[in-house]
Amino acid sequence: MTTSPTVSALPERADQPAQHHGGTGPRIVLPDAPADLAARLDRGEAVAWDEPLRILTYEAGEPSPYPMYLDQRVYQGSSGKVYPLPFVESVSDVGVERDWQAVHLENRYVRLVVLPELGGRIHVGYDKSTGYDFFYRNNVIKPALVGLAGPWISGGVELNWPQHHRPATYLPVETSIEHGVDGSVTVWCHDHDPFSRMSAHHGVRLHPDRAVVELVVRLHNRTSQRQSFLWWANVAARVHEGYQSFFPEDVRYVADHARRALTAFPSADRPYYGVDYPARADETPGADRIDWYRNIPVPTSYMIVDSQEDFFGGYDHTAGAGFVHWAERRISPGKKQWTWGDAPFGHAWDAQLTDGDGPYVELMAGVYTDNQPDFSWLLPGETKTFSQYWYPIPAMGVAHQATVDAAVHVDRGERTRAVVAVTAPQPRAVLTILRDETAVAAQQADLVPGVPFALDADLDADAAGAGLRVELRDATGRLLVGWQPVAVPDEEPWVAEEPPSPAGLDSAEALYLTGLHLSQYRHPTRSPLPYWHAALDRDPGHAPTHLALGDRLLRAGRYAEALEHADAALRRLTRWNANPLDAEAFYLRGLALARLGRDVEAEQAWGKAGWDATWAAPAGLELARSYARRGRLRAALRVLDDVDAVAGRDARRPALRALVLQRLGQDAAAHAVLEAALAEDPLDTTLRVVAGRPVAADAGRLVDAALDLREAGAGDAAFAVLARAAAPGGGAACAWAPLAHYLAAALHDRLGQHDAAARERATARTQDLRRAFPAGLDALDALDAAVVADPADAVALHLRGMLLYAHGRRTAAAHDWDRAITAGLEDPVLLRNAALAAYNVRHDDDRAWALYEHAVAVAPDDARLRHEQDQLALRLGHTGAERLARLRRVVDLVLTRDDLTIAYLGLLVESGEAAAALRILTERPFHPWEGGEGQALAVWDAAHEALGLPRTDPPASLGEARSPFTPPVARHDDGVTDYFATSLPELLLFARETPED
């Protein structure tokens, strides 16, 4: 073994933990571990406990009672559709001390805090060895209007699923603490996504004697249809001029959202986000390096292109600390940086999100995705499991290679220096620098987390070339991390193009695939339907297109039409082969038949679908459920036996098996099934309900569980759970009680209990309808049944209209709302909804205006209604004087909303009252929203211009600052939204359309 002449252990940086906070505001005080856990912690164990955390909080406003139909809103490059989530439009200007539920994890090296009430995010990641917050610690909860449903907070680690910026950011998750036989502790967080009701578990795990944060994830499609999703772990890191993001050395290019633009990396070789980086570098050498926060002056995203490596991270050169993310590239190719930009515009946004903790960047890790939007699929019942890892690194520099065991930095010049950091104690580890397989320097040392270790060699790295290599091995010779130069072709990757119009595509396959892309990626302004209809014009029997249309129609509740398309697909697929390569058409046929009440035919279709391994598990589950509902209990068990022998985990199957066993009187066997299933999925709602274990009073999850029980034929149990869902206090942001009663009524009718059904419907009509936003086929079927039972049920018509409008059936929705109004329901939400439909769908401007007038008369103090009415007035060509006069009468109400205030101030400027407008602009605080930047600033400039005043920068209270650069275009001069737009300043409630129905 050759020994280097220079070996050093670099110093720890644990002396100034307060310095690493870097902020000027309050600092969260983390409690010590309870006494019984402190002793275990001293022994080197990992511990976890529940203890509230007091944090200065700027509360989000009350959710809107109006459903927001934002299908054409552009959000992160895909649809900003938010229904059935209620929308939050305001944030308090005054912070208050508040206790948040918190779960704490700690071991010898790392301290973490998880906040269950905020989507289970990791809020604190603290390196005890160096005193460094390797995740951005936001010491206040200060939301900005950035999220899909409104409020969003920066800091820590947000888990983005099933689309960008977790829709459940401001929704609670259930938690439990698991102690592993290996000494690990895991905080499990469980939620159902609010759109398709898929289930997600993420477990934040610490091991003893390892400075590694492991995130264990299970994504479960608990629905009967294929669902699209993405997963990005959104890590925030506090930044300044000395912060550098690092990516693998084989990264030569990075791409914008949807790969609409490209630039070289780390030195940008072309304009990107309107910034001419090569020109900036001509003036200031190195200013084109976009791996340094200080060089990016505008809000900017970039995602790496085509790396074959497993790691990336960020490094604070001032603090001498950073972090590494590691996950297997085969499932986790996504590596991204986002920043607001190091300039006044970005700093204004930073101030919206924190009091004194300064700017941050997001270093995001995508699993099953490498861009945004970039959605993957989950089959019905499918569970995807994976892990991601983060660990802090000490003063070693950026990592040039990393594993979950160690990271290495290699300085290359006239001398070569390797610096390593380990994630667990490694006694007698050996660090070696090699040239052409020959060790030129090596040293054995006892390595521990938090202390970097360096080795120098008199070796010219350029001369060594590709023969240079660095290895760190443990005492047994196992490789912990290794590095060698990479050679990557400099061929420029592809850039996305807007698809041609249907007329520009020359085959049914091309038309089908283009439509599939638009559907899968949830494009906000381009529908797949013209492509699919054109495909059938080219080839009337094109089976994939029939399946795509059938699936879409089924999701909209148009079951008979969905069945027609499934049958058309089967005619093509089985013309020569009775057993087609893919049996999806049989599965889809079964779903449509079951919704139409044709159970025996549905069972036949699912039986045939089960011949195909891809569809065996989904079809088997549906078949077993149908057998159970019809009392064929032993047949149901046989199907489950067959599926369990070949299919992966699906928490719905053991729940169904246990229910069937209970009905057969085999309680001990049912108990054993439940215990085994709950050992794997301890927070699954249905499993806990069936097992008789406590379940949180979350009405949405209780309804989900009740539907599972209903599908298994367990009617009495389903009624009991629906009653819990309808009880006060379980609705969170939404009101579930009316729907719970309508679902109970439909089940009573199915069981022939018609008097009980009538009582449930009567009770449903008495419930609070505020934020009762039904969604999904089960809700639709229940509301259909209610309207059949009583065509004058105005509440059912009102609710069904909301659901149909959200499902794209807008003509039918408008008809339902008309009937509800005629039946005498005078509700401002109903009137406003009907007004939207009148303008958007029927193009009846007079009726739209009359309905808004009626709604305002019913709810005169509703500022949201006033804002929407003013937006309609703008579209209907009302004069500025008319609009201003209308708003003057309720000016105090106007000033309660930012958007309405901005419209009012613009009208003041137009009417010659710029001084009054300017006074309000300087006295009133504003909260901008992402995509809506510049609106308050535009009025500020217009007021100054009207008064003959010089253009000045706005006060901080305006919430935004100027950007000298032009962002990528969102809307063209002809009014058409750019195909690659990532955001729009308008929410597009008012948008003329041709409805699908």
UniProtKB/TrEMBL annotation:
<feature type="region of interest" description="Disordered">
    <location>
        <begin position="1"/>
        <end position="28"/>
    </location>
</feature>
<feature type="domain" description="DUF5107">
    <location>
        <begin position="81"/>
        <end position="393"/>
    </location>
</feature>
<dbReference type="Pfam" id="PF13432">
    <property type="entry name" value="TPR_16"/>
</dbReference>
<dbReference type="InterPro" id="IPR011990">
    <property type="entry name" value="TPR-like_helical_dom_sf"/>
</dbReference>
<feature type="region of interest" description="Disordered">
    <location>
        <begin position="950"/>
        <end position="970"/>
    </location>
</feature>
<protein>
    <submittedName>
        <fullName>DUF5107 domain-containing protein</fullName>
    </submittedName>
</protein>
<dbReference type="Pfam" id="PF17128">
    <property type="entry name" value="DUF5107"/>
</dbReference>
<dbReference type="InterPro" id="IPR033396">
    <property type="entry name" value="DUF5107"/>
</dbReference>
